[in-house]
Specification:
The protein is mostly helical and 405 residues long. 82% of the residues lie in helices and 0% in strands. The chain has helices at residues 2-38, 42-74, 77-94, 103-125, 128-131, 137-162, 173-192, 206-219, 221-252, 256-284, 286-306, 313-342, 348-360, 365-376, 379-398. Keywords: Membrane, Transmembrane, Transmembrane helix, Transport. The chain crosses the membrane at residues 21-39, 51-72, 79-97, 103-124, 144-163, 175-193, 231-254, 260-280, 289-309, 315-331, 351-375, 381-401. InterPro entries: Atg22-like (IPR024671), ATG22/LtaA_families (IPR050495), MFS_dom (IPR020846), MFS_trans_sf (IPR036259).
Length: 405
């Protein structure tokens, strides 16, 4: 029991280690710094940022199931987790160096860091079925997500206390903090998580194994439909993660220092939501939990759209952000937990690879369309892309029956 708790804690600590990358680099601080300082043109910067997210998402989508199949074949998911983590850490640290006008260097460093980060998530998620069962997977997954947002929160506090975020010259230092944070707190996972050796009667080539996995996924109709639904609603989440800070600055009128504060409270609400829904999910079921989060995510995005029309745009946007934060963690946590309950035991990495694929295969669509529409019209109009993606994903997911294969 003690060993299992150690493994669960070490696994959860990886979320704590990795979340500052999403919070500080992708969503709030570095993205806004890139558009306003490195590019010096919010519209052009938004378009470039969305394009690099799209490209890195496509690369991650292609590599995820391939590397997942390879990890299953060679029992090497822990090694893959370590390699992809350290690649991401190195290139996060390199984001410290680009200065005003160094657009290409900044984009390349971020793209590599993001691809490696997404790939590491595949192997990290695949350990969940080893640590949980149908009765506690929601709690374990939810606690890990909550722990992750606590990590994002603490790292934001450290940034706020160590750096003057109103000084552009100070912002690159946050990338060093994120890299060091990721490096230190990922170590326990590498120590305590163990690779389970399995007997393989017949080894297929990675490509053939990938084809076999795709065929088997289609045979599991509920899993296949779940992947399709997640393809849409996760694209909406990625768009929000990637452009939330940019929207706050460009449309609602936030200063970078205000984005910092927003990020702190968003992480507080996300942590609370993840911890609470982890227990709620085990009571009401993963499907109902996910549907609740999707309905409220649509509602919160609508509030964000109407915020500029209100008498207090910033306050209205704050309400939207807090509600969104409460639901973001539970949505992702419950999705991960649901898959752990229905996944074939001998195809963990492959199916989690396809889980990542459906999370990334079209994830370039939301940010890309947002960038194009915002460049030609406005960021506010572009927000309807997020609402549409949420709605499509919700409709598909609502009609899935998980009692059947």
């Amino acid at each position: 029991m003690f060993k299992i708790k150690n493994k669960i804690f070490a696994w959860s600590l990886y979320d704590f280690a990795s979340q500052p990358f999403s919070t500080i680099i992708v969503t709030f601080i570095y993205s806004a710094f890139f558009t306003t300082y490195i590019v010096e043109d919010v519209d052009k910067g938004t378009l470039l940022w969305t394009r690099v997210i799209s490209i890195s998402a496509i690369i991650a989508a292609i590599l995820s199931p391939i590397l997942g199949a390879l990890a299953d074949r060679n029992s090497s998911r822990k090694l893959m987790l370590i390699i992809t983590t350290y690649i991401s850490i190195i290139f996060i640290g390199l984001l410290y160096f680009p200065e005003k006008g160094d657009i290409m260097f900044s984009l390349i460093f971020f793209a590599i860091a993001n691809v490696a980060f997404e790939l590491s998530t595949v192997f990290y998620n695949s350990f969940l079925p080893d640590l949980s069962n149908n009765q506690n997977s929601g709690k374990i997954s939810g606690n890990a997500w909550g722990f992750g947002f606590v990590g994002g929160l603490i790292s934001l506090f450290i940034c706020l206390s160590m750096f003057d975020v109103n000084q552009s010259s100070e912002i690159p230092k946050v990338s060093l903090l994120v890299a060091i944070w990721f490096f230190i707190f990922s170590v326990p996972a590498f120590i305590f998580l163990k690779e389970k050796k399995k007997l393989v009667t017949k080894k297929l080539s990675t490509l053939n194994q990938l084809k076999s996995t795709f065929k088997s996924i289609k045979e599991y109709k509920s899993i296949f439909k779940f992947f399709i639904a997640r393809l849409f609603y996760n694209d909406a989440l990625i768009t929000i993660f990637s452009l939330g800070g940019i929207y706050a600055v460009g449309t609602v009128g936030f200063e970078l220092s205000e984005v910092f504060i927003l990020g702190i409270f968003l992480n507080i609400s996300a942590a609370i939501g993840s911890f609470i829904f982890g227990y709620v999910e085990d009571k009401i079921g993963s499907k109902r939990a996910i549907l609740i989060t999707l309905y409220l995510l649509i509602f919160s995005t609508l509030i964000a759209f109407f915020a500029p029309y209100t008498s207090s745009p910033k306050i209205t946007f704050w309400i939207s952000a807090i509600l969104l934060g409460l639901m973001v963690g539970p949505n992702q946590s419950s999705s991960r937990s649901l898959l752990s309950k229905i996944i074939p035991a001998n195809k963990k990495n492959e199916f989690y690879g396809f889980f990542a694929l459906t999370g990334k295969a079209t994830s370039f669509v939301g940010p890309l369309l947002f960038g194009i529409i915002s460049a030609n019209f406005s960021q506010q109009i572009a927000l309807w892309i997020v609402i549409l993606l949420f709605c499509i994903g919700t409709i598909i997911f609502k009609n899935i029956c998980f009692d059947k294969g």
